[in-house]
Amino acid sequence: MTRLFNDPDDFAEEMIEGFAAASARWVRPVTGGVVRATRGAEPTVAVVIGGGSGHYPAFGGLVGPGLAHGAAMGNLFASPSAHQVHTVATAAHEGRGVLLSFGNYAGDVLHFGQAQERMRAAGIDCRTVLVTDDVWSAPKDELERRRGIAGDLVVFKIAGAAAEAGHDLDDVERLARLANDRTRSSGVAFGGCTLPGADEPLFDVPAGRMAVGLGIHGEPGIDEVDIPTAAGLAEMFVTKLLDERPAGVDLAGARVVPILNGLGNVKYEELFVVYRTIHTLLTDAGVEIVSPEVGEFCTSFDMAGASLTLLWLDDELEQLWLAPCDTPAFRRGEVSGRRAVEDAELTALDDAHEIGAASDASRAAAAVISRAFAAVAAMLDAHADELGRIDRIAGDGDHGIGMQRGSRAADQAAAGAAGSAAGAQTTLQHAGDAWADKGGGTSGAIWGEMLVALGAAVGDEDAVTADAVGAGVAAMKDAVMSFGKAKPGDKTMIDAIVPFSDDLTERLAGGDTLIDAWSHAAGVATAAAEATSNLTARLGRARSHGDRSLGTPDPGAVSFALVAHTVLDVLKKED
Amino acid sequence: MTRLFNDPDDFAEEMIEGFAAASARWVRPVTGGVVRATRGAEPTVAVVIGGGSGHYPAFGGLVGPGLAHGAAMGNLFASPSAHQVHTVATAAHEGRGVLLSFGNYAGDVLHFGQAQERMRAAGIDCRTVLVTDDVWSAPKDELERRRGIAGDLVVFKIAGAAAEAGHDLDDVERLARLANDRTRSSGVAFGGCTLPGADEPLFDVPAGRMAVGLGIHGEPGIDEVDIPTAAGLAEMFVTKLLDERPAGVDLAGARVVPILNGLGNVKYEELFVVYRTIHTLLTDAGVEIVSPEVGEFCTSFDMAGASLTLLWLDDELEQLWLAPCDTPAFRRGEVSGRRAVEDAELTALDDAHEIGAASDASRAAAAVISRAFAAVAAMLDAHADELGRIDRIAGDGDHGIGMQRGSRAADQAAAGAAGSAAGAQTTLQHAGDAWADKGGGTSGAIWGEMLVALGAAVGDEDAVTADAVGAGVAAMKDAVMSFGKAKPGDKTMIDAIVPFSDDLTERLAGGDTLIDAWSHAAGVATAAAEATSNLTARLGRARSHGDRSLGTPDPGAVSFALVAHTVLDVLKKED
Fold first, then answer.
1. Taking CB atoms and an 8 Å cutoff, what residues of chain A touch B442?
2. In principle, which of A65, A387, B36, B370 could form an S-S bond with B418, CB 3.0–4.6 Å?
């Protein structure tokens, strides 16, 4: 909803004032909108765009060199008057004629049409190209009845680039019309915006549902479906737009610009997840993707919705689409003197995980370590659901899947390193990095740090003796302690690893074998993990998390104890 | 909320894949994030940024020439691991050292710190500059404890520009630190985002309330207040940030870059309305504003919130802030060969309302027309509230204020034109344009068109006879009919003007004087306006608007009848 305004009646006027103040590098305010603040050396045809306000960057945000010369900016979702269009077009005119371009809406058609008559009456050559990209707003055999949505950007950019290149009005009009003929968009919405001062949104879509083909002012859609996955939406978009491609376009070898547009409340991260599948589907269809755009190009305040636009290029359109432009909200340029980075320059990447020299003894230890990771990964695979269940009681439920993914990745990395004759440290470092990368969350980061710390303690040269293991486990404990802010008694994994490490160190100092010491310490860890469910001790956390966590142990402590027992089994088998 | 995803656990990874696919002109994916896809002729210091995902364009969107060399992109709102930072920094390194820069959060400090140690262990000079711009997150005497929010953009841009300019690592570090020292931000929030797959938003703010100083991941704010007006928020921002300006900065003559940032759901139009007052307040404080930015630079998915950042420039910082850059989401460049447009080139504007030649008879009619506008404006002033009340029952309640504003502007324009010896047509055209510009909404546009049509019918030369008036009213009727889709019987203003015009034409043809004919037609219009409240006829509209409209006439029809009677009074007085 729109929350920030003064008098709602003054909203559009104040918005335009603020926009012009913030964008003085590009635009100057005139009655009815803005025109460019700069001119080039030679006069060009003037491209004048416009429509109601509320669609930023459409329309004022698209005024500047290489794009529009002026924008008539009406009240919220209301066409500018003929007089406003006329004053903007008159100010923008550089003596070579004016092209008016705007989305196909009745009010805009009426007012821009009257402005065109006034321009012509004053002896200025003035033409109009309507944008009609919305495939849902009329059938294929009535293309001229379709509405304009995010395809606005395409037609305006092509027309502006053509004007900038010095074309005459005939040619600018021809190219703008060609751009519109080769542009198609499909939109969906999940909910409408609430205008300044209004009590209710312009329209509603039931929760969990998605309106298909709904317009940017809430014009009715043609269907309503359950909200699909991101990949599902990508497929809906691409299937429809490939079917709707302009007559005569062959998919094989076609070059296309995809523009994935957010209407306001569907944000960049979601758009990128959707784009990922769009990119794959278009590529799979044999289409060459040129210079895609993902962002907010034609919004409707904070309306929850998105649209995909495809511009089917030919050589002329491609050159104009890629030409430089500089406006408040859409810029395209090149910083000179750049070259593509070469693969060889990125090989430093591999160095980060280079396998260095190692002693035979350390390599032998690495092989045991690798087998331990395999056992731990198998164990966590089996227990992932149960760990998730425990975590859902007090936390966010991702502990099980995080440990499963992390240990699986660590297993693969350890096997790869050990198989490449890595020593113990290198093997543990590869495994730790992989666990942190893939495990995610705090537990992934902590396990990554623990394994890297263990590796640093045992090295790639020395044999991994019982004492080295004890020192390594102590280093793991230190890594956990320094990682977060938790202390013993806070009922976290620390409550298991601290007594485990202390007991192991004490038993080894007392002369126990590694297996005996580890066995005893693992029992201590289990008891300690169980104690994290102690009712009294958990009361503090329970207060903030609700009663459900009472009696449930900390999942991090539990999984640590499980790992300790699994490693014990491996040690016994190796013995 | 976040609606579009596949498996929520894969969201960040798929987002990064989609981002890299859409942004291949600028970035290449590597383990843990992205690095630039191009290199310049000479190697530079590498600026590596990063943090959790969910803040686009931070962080991947800021990688490219003139800005960052690489971005480590963690999971949603979670720091990248040390390994991820390390691989990105290693790939980005061009042989002249690495500057790590990121917001001051515990997880990021830990992981970037560990990555820095790894870089140094590999013999690469690596430094760190934390961003600490959020004035609400710690007091003035603990600047180093503050969090980083939208000030990220400033520090990254300055560091990237310094690297691009060829500075060595000492200097890039110094300048990044200087940028952070001279950057302050203040943020507010109205509500939190809901992450993919989550059932609830990260945090809530009660309806109508605003959290002050709340962090971009929902960290607690320091106060909660009623949502102010846009101007009120601007004043809160500016007052706080002027008070928080860096030690030693004199307001008088200071140059400052304001960056007004939307967190996701507070949209461009609202930001511009807020910026309007920020611009005025800063200017009034004696500060020179340089190259402002209004948009989305550091978001939190679709979180409803905004922040203002001020960068207090010195000569070095100004040059670096204005230097060109080219990244997926932030570009700055100049299209060469531009010059500022001169005032004289915009004078064509005035020509649009040039006063042409007119006969004495037409000028005399213009004077009467001008007096009629004065009477109509006074009448609508008196009836604005009542018309608004009627409109609120079935419509949006703006009819009264729209008619008031429109007629007032038309009155002024008509008086100006008639006072400058304009004829009847020119006077009506000025008045109609002013009504459409200022009245707004459909009624403003319709009255504008009606007046322009009436003007075209009577001209600037001929005397305005009774028959000319009749023909002019018929032209007004045609203008209304062609304007929208409404037809007689739809219970709109058409139901009043059609019988009015038809009756007037018939009476004039029958030999009535203008006053007699107009008087009769005005009575017909009143009856017709009243009939728009007919219960049976309104049932169709009532079904979609609720019962309240039953028995209430259409406000457009009522105001037309009122105008008809007011003009009758003027005609009688002139007679």
1. 78
2. B370
